[in-house]
Backbone:
């Protein structure tokens, strides 16, 4: 099965494509490894020599500033050589197939691909097709998975609320189109969260969403009760033009997170957002910048978690 | 005139209610007798069919042979060899050829290519609308005169119901059968998988059953309004079976088929992102599969088609949503039908009828049976012979099948088309 594609013969991480199929102990290992890297960014020399001499290619078929930058920083801090390929404006627009692009880069003796692609399954496809010595990290594929984002969020949650088994987490917004939501749900369920609740109108929920292991609410005010972690999702502007929602203002009225609504959640609830945020659409500025927000912490943690995943996929343990 | 005798086989001919050991006598490309030896019959060729089943050659209601604009995927030559090896003696070609089969010239060209490939029994489903764009009617009478056996719009949508109504009225005026693939384009929303738990888990753009059932229900209403004969192709879900059942009970002259893979595979069989499972309509749920099987057993669905769609490797290499849909499925048709029998979903006689007598009735062809005077289209197969789906045994140029590498039971040993042996497996 493809899920095992991620693990080598010893059961260690080889590719990181999806949370699905990974054990609680492996996810915990990623978090622990990330913790060992968390200090590196604060050192005067922000580097460890773990991946010296390795070449990592950031293969971004879809634009992204934040994710690409944190992957680049992570690789640099592990002392790897990094090449950024922005394919959204490169070879494939000249008619080169995904596979041809991969073959050409393989021929340049790279060790790892960090892949972002607009289609679900792209990272799996590359992992299946690429040379056996190359590791593939999924930096987001279509509506399928964004496992490093999920792990950095788990890392951030664990820093503040170490016991997952007591946690009730609400994910709010466009679940249907969100690879982040799918990976968060799998990670939270694997780590044993008490409840994962999705809150959205029916137009933004996929069919049989309960089968992902979540409870469902269509009402933010009701849905936020007893919640420890509030995860907001970005709302793409296209959702209005494809008749999924009437308007930004109505969405904000129903599902936008304001200070007042946040009061319904537990008093010590934290607010998360994978970024980039739409202020005044899914979240009020006062909440995004408020005391319960951990949004910038998520960004900082992104580097350590990506360092952990890259190092583990290259069969290295954490920082000494 | 060439005389052939097929001896010792178990003859199963559902249309004539025959199931017995005996001989089949062929002369001049026609069946002359089953069991009773005609006076003075001296065969030039004798085929020993001991321990084998002798039945009418199969009639496939939905096939794509590529060629012309798509010859890198497959050619008539490669695919008619695959068809012959599958026991298929008559093929219906969907109109989405390149160029589209919407003019007599293209139909003539296809017939010529078929003759050249040594497999003349290829029937073209003519385009219902020009270029299959769903906007203007094709010259259906000319298409019929050129040999089109039916009309259809393949997987392409007809722009609105008024155009579909007029197309059906016009087809009915010329007594043309409409072969209809039920799919509401808008509800389909460019999906590539069944709208259910699996697509949700993998984040795949999905197609609800309603995309099929709504289009089907609309077409049923128009069938009543216009009096057009309609055959619904490649049903994929429970509610379609129920709707066809009700329509038949109500008295509408409609029929339906199912692609063989829909009777065996569900969304759960999809190895994550394996493009071999990318088909349209998509693989649906276990419940849908069971209803399709029951529909077949109860004759709501009267035919099984291969829905053969060979592809080149590139078409299937990529992220799942960008790969091209379809399976190369002629050669797995018989073993998968026999598997239905082994699983007691249908009887062997029903299975053979669904591949011969019933599609012949849909198309109003004088074939699909071993009736004296009919074209000698015969399939002889060994129901017990096991074979592996691999490069050595496979004839189609498209290797896009999820059954690749598997060992299947049941193999065609001889295929006769109009009395000519077009396949012999030693």
Residues:
């Amino acid at each position: 099965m493809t899920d095992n594609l991620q693990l080598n013969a010893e059961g260690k991480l080889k590719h990181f494509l999806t949370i699905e199929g990974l054990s609680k102990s492996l996810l915990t290992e990623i978090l622990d490894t990330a913790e060992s890297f968390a200090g590196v960014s604060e050192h005067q020399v922000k580097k460890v020599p773990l991946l010296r001499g390795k070449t990592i290619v950031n293969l971004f078929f879809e634009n992204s500033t934040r994710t690409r930058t944190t992957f680049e920083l992570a690789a640099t801090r592990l002392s790897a050589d990094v090449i950024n390929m922005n394919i959204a404006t490169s070879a494939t627009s000249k008619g080169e197939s995904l596979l041809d692009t991969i073959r050409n880069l393989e021929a340049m003796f790279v060790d790892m691909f960090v892949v972002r692609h607009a289609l679900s399954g792209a990272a799996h496809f590359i992992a299946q097709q690429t040379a056996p010595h190359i590791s593939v990290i999924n930096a987001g594929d279509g509506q399928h998975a964004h496992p490093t984002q999920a792990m950095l969020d788990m890392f951030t949650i664990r820093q503040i609320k170490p016991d997952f088994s007591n946690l009730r987490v609400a994910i709010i917004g466009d679940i249907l189109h969100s690879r982040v939501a799918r990976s968060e749900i799998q990670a939270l369920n694997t780590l044993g969260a008490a409840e994962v609740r999705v809150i959205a109108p029916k137009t933004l929920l996929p069919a049989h969403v309960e089968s992902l292991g979540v409870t469902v609410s269509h009402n933010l005010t009701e849905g936020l009760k007893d919640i420890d972690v509030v995860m907001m999702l970005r709302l793409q502007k296209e959702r209005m033009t494809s008749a999924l929602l009437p308007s930004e203002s109505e969405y904000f009225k129903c599902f936008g997170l304001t200070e007042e609504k946040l009061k319904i959640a537990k008093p010590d609830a934290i607010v998360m957002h994978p970024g980039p945020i739409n202020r005044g659409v899914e979240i009020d500025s006062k909440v995004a910048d408020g005391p319960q927000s951990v949004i910038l912490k998520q960004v900082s943690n992104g580097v350590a978690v990506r360092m952990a995943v890259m190092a583990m996929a290259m069969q290295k343990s954490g920082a000494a | 005139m060439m005389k052939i005798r097929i001896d010792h086989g178990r003859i199963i001919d559902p249309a004539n209610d025959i199931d017995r050991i005996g001989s089949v006598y062929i002369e001049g490309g026609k069946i002359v007798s089953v069991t009773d030896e005609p006076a003075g019959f001296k065969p030039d060729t004798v085929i020993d069919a001991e321990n084998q089943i002798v039945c009418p050659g199969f009639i496939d209601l939905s096939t794509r042979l590529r060629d012309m604009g798509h010859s890198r995927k497959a050619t008539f030559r490669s695919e008619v060899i695959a068809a012959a090896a599958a026991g298929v003696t008559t093929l219906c070609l969907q109109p989405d050829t390149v160029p589209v089969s919407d003019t007599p010239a293209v139909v003539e060209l296809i017939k010529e290519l078929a003759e050249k490939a040594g497999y003349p029994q290829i029937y073209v489903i003519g385009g219902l609308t020009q270029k299959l764009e769903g906007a203007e009617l094709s010259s259906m009478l000319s298409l019929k005169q050129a040999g089109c056996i039916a009309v259809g719009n393949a997987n392409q949508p007809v722009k609105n119901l008024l155009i579909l109504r007029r197309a059906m009225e016009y087809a009915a005026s010329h007594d043309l059968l409409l072969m209809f693939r039920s799919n509401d384009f808008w509800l389909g929303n460019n999906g590539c998988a069944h709208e259910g738990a699996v697509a949700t888990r993998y984040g795949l753009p999905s197609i609800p059953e309603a995309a099929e059932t709504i289009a089907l229900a609309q077409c049923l209403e128009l069938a009543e309004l216009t009096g057009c004969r309609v055959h619904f192709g490649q049903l994929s879900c429970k509610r379609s079976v129920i709707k066809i059942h009700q329509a038949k009970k109500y008295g509408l002259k409609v029929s339906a088929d199912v692609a063989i893979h829909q009777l065996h595979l569900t969304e759960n069989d999809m190895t994550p992102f394996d493009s071999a499972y990318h088909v349209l309509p998509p693989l649906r749920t276990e419940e849908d599969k069971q209803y399709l099987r029951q529909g077949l057993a109860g004759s709501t669905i009267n035919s099984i088609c291969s829905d053969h769609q060979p592809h080149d490797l590139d078409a299937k290499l990529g992220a799942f949503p960008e790969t091209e849909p379809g399976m190369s499925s002629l050669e797995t048709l018989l073993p998968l039908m026999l598997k239905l029998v082994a699983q007691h979903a249908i009887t062997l006689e029903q299975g053979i009828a669904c591949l011969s007598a019933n599609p012949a009735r849909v198309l109003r062809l004088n074939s699909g049976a071993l009736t004296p005077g009919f074209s000698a289209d015969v399939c002889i197969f060994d129901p017990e012979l096991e074979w592996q789906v691999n490069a050595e045994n496979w004839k189609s140029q498209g290797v896009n099948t999820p059954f690749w590498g598997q060992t299947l039971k049941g193999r065609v040993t001889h295929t006769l088309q109009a009395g000519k042996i077009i396949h012999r497996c030693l």
